[in-house]
Write the structure tokens for this entry.
Amino acid sequence: MENNASSTSTKSPAPKGEIWVWFTSLGLVLGLAMVLFLFGLILMRGFSFFWPVPVVQLELKEDSESVFRGNTSFAGVIASTQERSLQEIAVEEEILLEEEEEVEADGILGQALQTISEYRVFVGSRDRYGQSFRYFRHNDILERSFPEDIIRAERRVEGDAFFFPQRIQFQDGSEVTREDAIFEDELDRVVKEARSRRSQINRIDRREIGPINLEIRQLTMDLRYLNRIERSEGELTEAQQAERERLTGRIAKLNEQFELLRDQADELRETNQSIRVFYEYADGTNGQIAIGDLFRFYYPNRLGFLQRVQVAGIQFWEFVSGYPREANMSGGIFPAIFGTFVMTLIMSIAVTPFGVITAIYLREYAVQGPLVRAVRIAINNLAGVPSIVFGVFGLGFFVYIMGGTIDSLFFSQAQELGTPTFGTGGILWAGLTLALLNLPVVIVATEESISAVPRGVREGSLACGASKWQTIQRLVIPASLPGILTGMILAMARGAGEVAPLMLVGVVALAPNLPVDGTFPFVHLERKFMHLGFHIYDVGFQSPDSEAAIPTVFATTLILIALIVVLNLSAILLRNHIRKKHKGSAF
Amino acid sequence: MNDSTETLQQTPEITRKEMDNPDKTDFRQDYISFRNYNFYYGATQVLFEVNLDIPERQVTALIGPSGCGKSTLLRNINRMNDLVDGIRHEGELLIDGTSAYDPTVEVISLRKRIGMVFQKSNPFAKSIYENVVYGLRVAGRKKKSTLDEAVETSLRRAALWDEVKDRLGESAFGLSGGQMQRLCIARAIANNPEIILMDEPCSALDPVATGKIEDLIHDLKKEYTIVIVTHNMQQAARVSDRTAFFYLGKLIEYDETEKMFMNPAQKQTEDYVRGRFG
């Protein structure tokens, strides 16, 4: 009996609490599920951007709704299948209002509730169809086929296209047609050659012409400055005149070099333009493309699994290592990856020492009282300030005040001519603005880990005759390093994804140069830069054909997340390494 | 720095003196001396008119129920209480004849002369070697041979050398509780202090480890003046030469340990040591 009583008394409170246990676990599961779903979606959609899918050719019924400009035959990639009610379509086409009576009279209103299914097909060839995507109703399709010989071509402009290559025309007018046995090998060869010529052109443009241009620009600026002096002073001193002559001579010489190189590049370009590929669209109409505009192609319906993996790998590599084309609509995102990486690095380098020093002062030296409490509250509130406010502050303080001061001290020439160096948005100011934004995160994390250092350790150190600073330096900071790194990790995760403030302090949709390159002084912190977050915004919401940009947006998002994961992972590994070294320090 | 070199040179001489005078009559009887000492945490008075002379090179135990002020008294000797906000004291505390609170006395050099072992062993997140030489490093000693010698001597004195000599480079957190406490003792004596303060050094240890530490205290008193706070009556009886009994911030009785336990003058002392309260 006694046993019974005691067992019920211990049992009875348990079920009451269990409901709440279930609730909490439900919340956790829900949160996890949402995170996993989002991550899975981005992973899937992001990777499918690179995956070569078979191309389908659709034959449509004559005079059906789906026929576009008389074309009854389309080739493309089916992006999705969707259902729409006729009413929706009618609303979209704005005929409901105009022909309301007619519709009612015809009794189609009943039908309006019916739904039709249709394919959303990526047909490419923006130049030809106006949009990259077209809709084809299931009922309008007569026949579907997967032609072997169709190629998917990545073109310099207007996105991808699907067509059947017919013949290659060389410079001398000779031709190779598809009936020839060597046709496909030849096509491969000329495209490869064109690619190597293109990289030669790029090398001339970037490596050789670039520095010359830069020097000419610099010298022209000096020259303009001298001219201005002449205008205001009346005449120049002898030394200045000599200087002007030297400048003019140098510019002329550089221009000569420049023209030589330009001719070289032009010659290569011409060769790339003179070889042409003639092709046929799915509907039989003809077209042609210069070999220089045909970047890469593959036969999507001939690939085996391994070849698909290979193509996906190549496309992925070109995406992460290439430069953007066509106002970011195609090409790669390397400058954005690099910009994000460098900016995050600058931010971490700036925020960590600053935050740690602040936290040490607050926790170890400041007399704990109402003032320090107020400061602490202010710091915590700083974390809640909308990031755009930091952007405005960064623009005012870093760009205008600090950048302006640097310019007037060291680049006064350029500033007077209206071309600021540091007095305009740049990667340094963006990094510092984000450092400021994340300062509270680092301070709070550091303070917490400093206060977690056991009192016994401090007392032990002081009892050994160490001063306060020696104790902090030798024991407190090493012991709180993992916590400091945690703060840094949080700051990086937040900073790398932040976009709004950057738009004010230096991010651009298309930057001409990377912030780090081969021209002296190699690191150009004053340069504007590209950022993955801003790239997503620009491609997804500012591009002329946003529907075609959706896959790019997913792929860019995937890369952004991957970059943040890589950055964080390396910081976490570093932290674990340090933790192992100091294991048990927080017992 | 001068301090510690001097003491290093003195060591052999001390040992000789020790052997010549086994009855220790040569040593100062008021090496640490509290005169009419009052101590306050803010408005709360913790010590009341304490007059206490602690003799050189003997073990003095401070006993009393919790909150009686014995730990506070101990932490006053190396001014560890300076860390606490709002403390105040009246009266005098003399160490070897000089006031500990004398404006010319720097608290850091004072602490270098006084080693301390805490209730909870507090090794640093460093190697065993670095733990021992911590005091020397912060004092600016860099010479490898000096440090190596200090490590061996201190660890030998702390009876830990044989157990750790092969893993000096390993983390101190790999040691057992008793070993950690002995490491802390080694760290305290590596500075060559004159006084070692022990704040319940065995309260977190098992009987075997406790026994080792007690043996160690017995050895160490040949060279150091030891003040130990303990809750364990048997321990006080075993290790100390003199015992001071505190109650509610007042020094009730202070005498030879044997007399304190066998024949105390005060009723309160007798009740406490017999375990009738506290």
Chain A has three domains: 56-150, 161-311, 334-581.
